[in-house]
Amino acid sequence: MKQKILILLLLTTGIGLYAQDISQLRITGKAEQLLNEIINKEVRDKNGELCAGLVILSDLTGLNYQSSLGIVKNNQSSGKDFLFLSPSERMVEVFCSGYEPLKIILNEIGIKLKSGEVWQIKVTGEKKLNLIPINIIANPEGANITIDGINKGMGITYQVTEGEHEIKIEKEGYRTLTKKINVNTNNVLFTYPLERIEPVLIHVKTTPSEAKIYIDNFEKGITDKDFHLFPGKYKIKISKSGFVDQEKEIVVEENMPNSYSFTLSKTSVTLSLKVTPSDAKVLINKEDYSNRASVELSPGRYLIEISKEGYSILEETIVMVLEKPLVKEYLLKRKTGKLQITVQPTDARVELKNGAEIINQWSGSKYIKDIGIGKYTLITIKEGYQTNTKQISIMENQTTSEDITLEKIEAPVIQKQVEKNQTNYEGMVYVEGGEFMMGSESGDDDEKPVHKVVVKSFYIDKYEVTVAEFEKFVNATNYKTNAEKEGWSYIWNGSSWVKKNGVYWLCGIDGKLITESKKNYPVIHVSWYDANAYALWAGKRLPTEAEWEYAARGGKNSRGYRYSGSDNIKDVAWYCEEHGIVTIHEVGAKQPNELGVYDMSGNVWEWCHDWYSENYYYNSMYENPQGPVSGIYRVLRGGAWSCLEPYNSVYIRSYMMNLNIPTYRDIWVGFRCAKDAN
């Protein structure tokens, strides 16, 4: 009844709207895209963009135009005007003498301008155009009405010309209805019931996932996601931080899969970097990206700066383009100088080091060109001569000259103790010879590979040589140690190693003279030469590295312990505990190993007979290996009271900077002796 009353009211009130005399321009038909029309590519808008085209056909003359962004160009001909417009243009207004201006909102008539594309519309006008009011009633109410492609909103009464028109009725939850109607003064009421429809399932998937979904600007959740929509057209937008938004129109249909997949493109581009040297500093637009194999950058221009002390700075400007990853390799050119060295004796061995890295080794004098600038350690050594260690600097485009003469060590005439010492094994432990696996696959590189070794039977000191024992040697021979000759030894001041004057074998770890009660501690501040001299005096020798490890492992009595005598380091070793008291201790205070030998893990590092070589284990002899025939460093084994737990294992080899030079001495290093069994 309510709807019938409304219809009657509309019919009675609408009669007064007939026969309005209006001089008005209008569009006839629908906008059409001209796919075969070619636009002049030389015509561009003020932003430099290629124009879009709008062709206006008309039976009127004298048409003029204006637009919100300005008409770029107008090619006029009879009945046809070709307007060049900016692709961003949204409105064109048409003027003709005697008519009301026609304002055309392009997207309302289905035109979406793009560079290089051309659209066409037809414009006409009738000076006395009779508009007829019509009523379009949808059931249920609240539907959106479109007439001849122009959205008219959700009203009921509309004015149109007499003749055929196309109407479209849309309401969410109902099937869209499109009809052709014929309008005349006797046919002005159009009533349409709408068919209800059910929502359908939608599936949205993105790569990568966890992107936000927007349907007609309303957020629907995070991908991958299923939800329901009524059939119809929708604008979908996919958004994820770090990726380009994607938007498109989708048509949701009944009885269809309605599955939509999106592959997102990054808003950044990957820059892969390979820099030599690898520790060079890398700045990208002044921001530090050092030690990075790859960097994510937004599209744009970037300044790359790569630098390292001692190298020439390298700079390059690059342009990152979306979806075009870039790989760059940079090799810094080292600043160089020259080094000229002469040595005496002429067959002395020389080693050039940069920090812990060995740069070069050779024998005799040498001239080196194109050596990187910086500070180096130059070590010159020869058996029977004082080792020379010197810090040198290489300057850019300059020659550094060094003339090194080694000081000969006057070997003391050491009278052995009474001949009975040749067969006296007091204080020593017999080690029956045998075969064992030397080294460790889990240790450092110089402890690899594990290799099979056999040693002859021998004797080894039960304890490390004590201060009291070394004192007897000095008193008997008037021997002067390296520390006494050079007037100093190394001590640790709590933060660094320092040479302290006046420190020698009778001093403790603080560099002060020890008391009588501490003469049963291991002797320290002794070099390899000092240890070897004592061994000769005592009718003994220093153990080979193989003998030392065999004895430390327990010889034929070995139980495979990690430390010498136990898997529990506290049972057998003095070492650096995280919160314990760190100091040297008297010999033999912990339990012995399987052979009855004490302190082969911890207390002090022990000098061995062998020259040191990092790769010696790859070439070691099987029977009684004696180490390399020559070298710069001597082997130290066993760990020390100041070392952390892992450094006291039976397989550990010491190699720390210049610590193994035969003249070296400090608060960590002592020794024990060995002797042939026969």
Characterise the protein shown here.
- By secondary structure, this protein is mostly beta strands.
- The chain has six domains: 78 residues, Sandwich (Immunoglobulin-like); 109 residues, no CATH class; 64 residues, Sandwich (Immunoglobulin-like), CATH 2.60.40; 63 residues, Immunoglobulin-like, CATH 2.60.40.1120; 70 residues, Sandwich (Immunoglobulin-like); 251 residues, paralog of FGE (formylglycine-generating enzyme) (Alpha-Beta Complex).
- It contains six helices and 47 strands.
- The strands form 14 sheets. It has a five-stranded mixed sheet with strand order 1-8-2-5-4, with no helix packed on it.
- Strand 6 and strand 7 form a beta hairpin.
- The longest helix has 13 residues.
- The protein is elongated.
Mean pLDDT: 87
Evaluate the radius of gyration: 48 Å
Shape: elongated
Give the terminus-to-terminus CA distance.
131 Å
Largest sheet: 5 strands, mixed
What's the CATH topology label of the largest domain? paralog of FGE (formylglycine-generating enzyme)
Beta content: 35-45%
Assigned CATH architecture of the largest domain:
Alpha-Beta Complex
- The CATH class name of the largest domain reads Alpha Beta
Q: Spatial order of the strands in the main sheet?
A: 1-8-2-5-4
Outline the low-pLDDT stretches. 4-21, 417-422
The number of distinct β-strands equals: 47
Number of domains: 6
